[in-house]
């Protein structure tokens, strides 16, 4: 496999000159792979780029991708990934810092997992065997670990423990080459969470291997003060975007409820007011229910599930009975369940309404599942 280690640098001249020889020594242990180093330099004033160019005479597999200016960690990686995939035809991309916080000796373990068939291998600090520097302040430890746990829960990716690690290997074919790198949500640190989520959605087989995250060797950290907030924003943005169908579905549900209630009362008091009250209520309820269902059907099609909307009128008409019937199933269930509950636990306000509420929640889950999986199922 052709493996490209992408290393962004900004003022890392002391580190990169020592890291490069160590890495090429490490590569010798895996002679069956074709290793390359791609340094993406943000036009460092300390001459990092120049130094890399000089070292190329000793290391033919050393490459430099100069940026016009420092444009953020995410921007540097995206730029490097494009170059490594396009110009260099890489099979595997490795992300790594220049400052020895990532141990070059861990590279064989990352690559081995890729050989085993994993598509996204993360050097993880928060699993058994992994660690962060004990010298870090409590606040930094807390933000790092807490941030990852928060991301884990909000994104619902429970097989990952370290969402902000900067040491990882990704398979290109079928994975990184399928991602739309133009739309990555951050030019800075938070590109990590977004890329991870995209790889996950792409169906990558993910593996974490434990790493000991060291202290920066020389030079200063380029960590921006707002990294944490940047990541938080990106994670929440992803969650909202992914849940958009669901939020809209809930809003449409309320619109349906108001239509139903409003129309029921208008019909009952104004249209069928002259008839028998019992018959009037029955007709009004049947009509308002049907109209409300039609309204929600249309709103769901053109709004909640607008990303998958059905445009052909024949298909829309053909789907309608399925929509009405499937939406009616939880109502039937709810009716049976409330009846059963008052008969069993007593005919009180609390019992009736608790049962009704449970029925509503089950109905929500049922409807959303049927709508998103069947009626407005995603077609690739
Ligand atoms: N090209 C480029 N490299 C950067 C930029 N920001 C950080 N780096 C490099 O990315 C790596 C990670 O940054 P670092 O300061 O070590 O972050 P920390 O480990 O979180 O403190 C280092 O090799 C930096 O030199 C940037 O804006 N552009
Ligand atoms: Mg670092």
Topology (elements, then pairings):
Blueprint: E1 2-9, H1 13-27, E2 34-41, H2 48-55, E3 62-66, H3 73-86, E4 92-95, H4 107-115, E5 120-124, H5 138-155, E6 168-171, H6 191-201, E7 206-210, H7 227-242, H8 244-271, H9 277-304, H10 313-345, H11 349-375
Parallel strand pairs: 1-2, 1-4, 2-3, 5-7
Antiparallel strand pairs: 4-6, 5-6
Helix pairs in contact: 1-2, 5-7, 6-7, 8-9, 9-10, 10-11
The chain binds guanosine-5'-diphosphate and magnesium ion.
Give a brief rundown of this model.
The protein is of the alpha/beta class and 380 residues long. It has 11 helices and 7 strands.
Description:
- By secondary structure, the protein is of the alpha/beta class.
- The chain folds into two domains: 241 residues, Spore Coat Polysaccharide Biosynthesis Protein SpsA, Chain A (Alpha-Beta Complex), CATH 3.90.550.10; 132 residues, no CATH class.
- It is built from eleven helices and seven strands.
- The protein has a seven-stranded mixed β-sheet with strand order 3-2-1-4-6-5-7, sandwiched between helices.
- Helix 6 runs parallel beside helix 7 and helix 8 runs antiparallel to helix 9.
- It is elongated and about 95 Å long.
- The two termini are 30 Å apart.
- The mean pLDDT is 94.
- The site of guanosine-5'-diphosphate has 21 residues, from strand 1, strand 2 and helix 3.
- Guanosine-5'-diphosphate binds next to strand 1, strand 2 and helix 3.
């Amino acid at each position: 496999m052709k493996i490209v280690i992408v290393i962004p640098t900004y003022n890392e001249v002391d580190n990169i000159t020592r890291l490069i020889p160590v890495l090429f020594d490490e590569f010798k242990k895996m002679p069956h792979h074709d290793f390359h180093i791609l340094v993406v330099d943000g036009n460092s004033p300390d001459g990092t780029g120049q130094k890399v160019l000089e070292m190329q005479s000793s290391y033919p597999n050393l490459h430099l991708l100069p940026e016009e200016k420092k444009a953020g960690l995410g921007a540097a990686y995206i730029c490097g990934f494009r170059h490594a995939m396009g110009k260099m035809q890489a099979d595997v991309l490795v992300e790594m810092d220049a400052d020895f916080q990532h141990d070059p000796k861990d590279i064989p373990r990352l690559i081995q997992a890729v050989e085993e068939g994993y598509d996204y291998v993360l050097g993880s600090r928060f699993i058994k065997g992994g660690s962060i520097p004990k010298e870090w302040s409590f606040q930094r430890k807390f933000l790092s670990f807490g941030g990852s746990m928060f991301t884990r829960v909000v994104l619902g990716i429970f097989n990952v423990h370290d969402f902000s690690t900067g040491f990882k290997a990704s398979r290109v074919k079928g994975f990184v080459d399928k991602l739309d790198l133009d739309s990555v949500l951050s030019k800075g640190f938070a590109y990590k969470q977004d890329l991870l989520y995209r790889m996950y959605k792409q169906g990558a087989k993910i593996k974490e291997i434990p790493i000991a995250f060291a202290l920066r060797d020389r030079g200063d950290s380029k960590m921006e003060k707002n990294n944490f907030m940047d990541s938080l924003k990106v994670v929440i943005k992803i969650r909202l975007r992914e849940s958009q169908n669901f939020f809209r579905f809930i809003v449409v549900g309320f619109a349906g409820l108001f239509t139903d209630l409003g129309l029921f009362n208008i019909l009952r008091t104004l249209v069928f007011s002259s008839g028998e009250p019992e018959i009037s209520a029955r007709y009004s309820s049947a009509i308002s229910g049907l109209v409300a269902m039609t309204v929600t059907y249309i709103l769901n099609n053109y709004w909640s599930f607008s990303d998958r909307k059905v445009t052909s009128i024949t298909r829309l008409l053909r789907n309608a009975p399925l929509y009405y019937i499937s939406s009616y199933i939880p109502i039937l269930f709810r009716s049976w369940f409330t009846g059963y509950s008052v008969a069993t636990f007593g005919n009180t306000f609390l019992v009736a309404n608790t049962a009704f509420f449970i029925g509503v929640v089950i109905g929500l889950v049922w409807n959303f599942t049927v709508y998103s999986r069947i009626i407005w199922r995603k077609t690739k």
